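In the design runs reported in the main text, the only information available to the sequence generator was the tokenized backbone. The following block is the verbatim input for one such run; it is reproduced so that readers can re-run the procedure and compare outputs position by position.
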């Protein structure tokens, strides 16, 4: 017999994952994959401004140009699974509840699935960021470096409201010690908007992220949820009671997810690495 949690308890499982994810504040669900593995996103280019010429006959507005389009292909790639057993004899020899399959699955989701989703999402955001900064950070330059990254996004004319910054705890500590940082670093509970939010800097919500969920040397990632669709296409968790060949419980899980950064919006993503600069230009202009 199998208890399929994806069908019977799907709302509860979804809620657990959503509550535990730190990256949700910086993503969206704007791309609908439906029954497809691959989706193509079309974007129309714009036309140049001309000097209006009232003496130019039928070309007073200039020469018409056909608007070109660009196509971004998004293909789901993250199919992750797990399985484990709880033998009936071990369960009978353990204190009541210690080897409970439901609790074990809950721990698996909270301690393995949720961190794995966040880790992957932050890795993609850092890789695709339009602005990349490499700098050895200290309490003397943490605030100015953050403002530098945030200003790069503002200069590209992306919305200010709604931006979030995923910051390592080490960077947050430097920020708090920076004399130039004058904003409150702790918010009242009723002002906390996102899970993990500890304050704001330069108008951007600061979300504390454990070091192990961020790419190596990452101090912070600034982004806006409009930049990155993060579909979770399938969550399938099952508890099998006494399946063939097993005396006890077999637990299986399948997660099908991904994250993408819109090509036209990658300049609204900035990442800072706490390390010596490399010889390469650290800011992408494409």
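Verbatim output:
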């Amino acid at each position: 017999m199998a208890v399929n949690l994806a069908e019977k308890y799907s709302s509860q499982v979804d809620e657990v994952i959503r509550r535990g994810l730190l990256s949700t504040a910086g993503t969206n669900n704007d791309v609908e994959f439906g029954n497809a593995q691959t989706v193509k996103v079309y974007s129309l280019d714009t036309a140049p401004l001309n000097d209006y010429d009232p003496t130019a006959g039928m070309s007073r507005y200039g020469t018409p140009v056909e608007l070109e389009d660009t196509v971004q292909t998004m293909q789901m790639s993250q199919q992750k699974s797990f399985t484990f057993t709880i033998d009936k004899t071990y369960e009978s020899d353990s204190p009541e509840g210690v080897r409970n399959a439901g609790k074990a699955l809950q721990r698996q989701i909270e301690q393995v699935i949720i961190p794995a989703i966040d880790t992957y999402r932050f890795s993609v955001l850092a890789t695709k960021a339009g602005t990349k900064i490499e700098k050895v950070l200290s309490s003397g330059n943490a605030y100015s470096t953050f403002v530098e990254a945030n200003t790069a996004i503002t200069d590209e004319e992306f919305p200010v409201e709604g931006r979030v910054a995923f910051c390592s705890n080490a960077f947050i500590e430097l920020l708090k010690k920076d004399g130039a940082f004058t904003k409150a670093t702790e918010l009242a509970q009723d002002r906390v908007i996102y899970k993990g939010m500890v304050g704001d800097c330069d108008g951007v919500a600061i979300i504390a992220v454990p070091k192990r969920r961020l790419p190596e040397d990452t101090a912070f990632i600034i982004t806006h949820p409009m930049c990155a669709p993060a579909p979770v296409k399938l969550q399938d968790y099952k508890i099998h009671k006494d399946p063939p060949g097993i005396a006890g419980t077999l637990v299986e899980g399948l997660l099908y997810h991904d994250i993408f950064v819109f090509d036209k919006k990658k300049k609204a993503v900035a990442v800072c690495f706490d390390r010596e600069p490399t010889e390469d230009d650290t800011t992408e202009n494409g």
